[in-house]
Structure formats: C-alpha cells, structure tokens
Amino acid sequence: MKKWIFIGLGAIVVIISVVVFVGLSNLGPIIKKAVNTYGPEITKTELHVADVSVSILSAEAKINDFFLGNPKGFKTPSAVQVGAVFVNVNEKTLTGNPIIIDQIKVKSPEISYEKKGKIDNFHSILNNVNKATLSEKSPAKSSQDKGPEKKLIIRDFTITDGKVNVALAIYGLGQKEITVPLPDIHLKDIGKESNGASAAEVSKQIFAALYGKITSNAVTNAINQELKTYGANLDSLSKTTMKQVEGVSEKAKDIGEKVKGCLLYTSDAADDN
Hints:
The chain has helices spanning about 1-25, 25-45, 120-135, 140-145, 200-215, 215-225, 235-270, and strands at about 45-50, 50-55, 60-70, 80-90, 100-105, 110-115, 115, 120, 150-160, 160-170, 175-180, 185-190. By secondary structure, it is of the alpha+beta class.
C-alpha cells in the first residue's frame, strides 16, 4: 500500500514539475507580448523589448534591449534604453492573482533627459502614466472588463549603475551633452498594501521614483560640476536663456511698432487721397 502511495506522490510531483516547466518555458513570449502590447498604452510612447529569455532552473527572465521612446515634440529618440532587465517571478503565483515578482533588477540604464519650455520628457511620460491609472479606475473601464484584472506585487525593485544624458545649450558653444551618474533606486513591496497593483499603478510608482532621482540635487550638482569645464552652471544658463528671450521680445516689440507705424502712414496717405 505504501509503495502505491509513494508511486502516486511521485506521479503528482512529476505532473507538477511538467506544469511548472511548461509555464516557465512559455513565460518569455508572454512577458514580451505583455510589455510590447500594454507598455505603449500606458506611456503613450514607443515602448518595446527585443526578446525575453527564461532560465528554467532559476525562474529568472532576462528582458533584452528595453526601449522607451520620447513623447511627440521632443528631439531625443529615446527616454530610456536598457541592455538587460532581470525579472525573478514566483512561479507558484503565475496562475493566481496577484502575480508575485520576487525581484526586478535594472542594470546600467541610459537615461536621456530633455526639457522643452516648462516641461520635460519624463514629466510628460509621467503625466501619461497618471492618466492611464485614472482611466483604469473609471466606471466605464470597469464595466468593459470581462474578468478580474491581473494584479502584481513586486517585492524588490532596483535600478543600479545608470547614467543620465542631458542636452544643454551653452552660450557661445552651442549644444553640449552632459553625462552624469543616476543615483541608485531601491523600491520594496510595490502593490503589497493593496494586495496587488495594476501594470499602470506599478509604472506610476517606478516612474515617480525615477523622475525624483533624475531631478534630484545629486544629479543637479553633478551637472554643475561638469559645466564648470565650460565656465557655466545651470543658473547661469537659465539667466542667459531668459536674456535671449527678453532680447527676442524687445526685437519683436520694435518690429511691431515699425509695422504699426507703416500701417498708420499708409492709412493717413489713403485718407489724404
């Protein structure tokens, strides 16, 4: 009897192993499709990954060549480029809700920060993500959903060894690109308090943390340190830009007055005739 019990238990273990193996072997295409399909809907920009490979032994997925494009109106083609992102999924939760991701490691991302007027590219992307989050919570959206939305819990999320590229216009020298280190980011238990968060909610937390680091004093000070080479700093660049704008405004005003004078002269001449 014990023999048959052991055989039965052995069969169950084999079946479970096969199910896990099949699930993990299909995990790569599933992640790739999810990122390439839903990512652009959240950021409203180009977003794609080239490939996703999965280690059956460690249940770790490697996302290759992550690319996040910039919103329309910005010159830099990309906002974020990463050669590899490592994702460790808790395979026991793949068929459940929420899905638990034990760890996400983003290594050596290349960030391109660009400012246009009063808004920058990351603030624009974050606005898009916020809108996507609000859209998910709307009654109209909820009524269209056929089933419960998949939620995520990310226990550990890190961004390390990143760099920020900033394009700056330096008076007398033209456009210069400054590259400075991005401070590391470490987030824990994303979505845990609400027993899972949507993809848009997760993206919102991550982008908010990233934006905070990009605009931090550490990055600002590093940029100013690099600008010393050109005898400038961010404050002086801002003042120069304001003077240039004021100069253009004064020229426009002078042109306006001259045009106005010409119109008045033409009008008086017409009256005399």
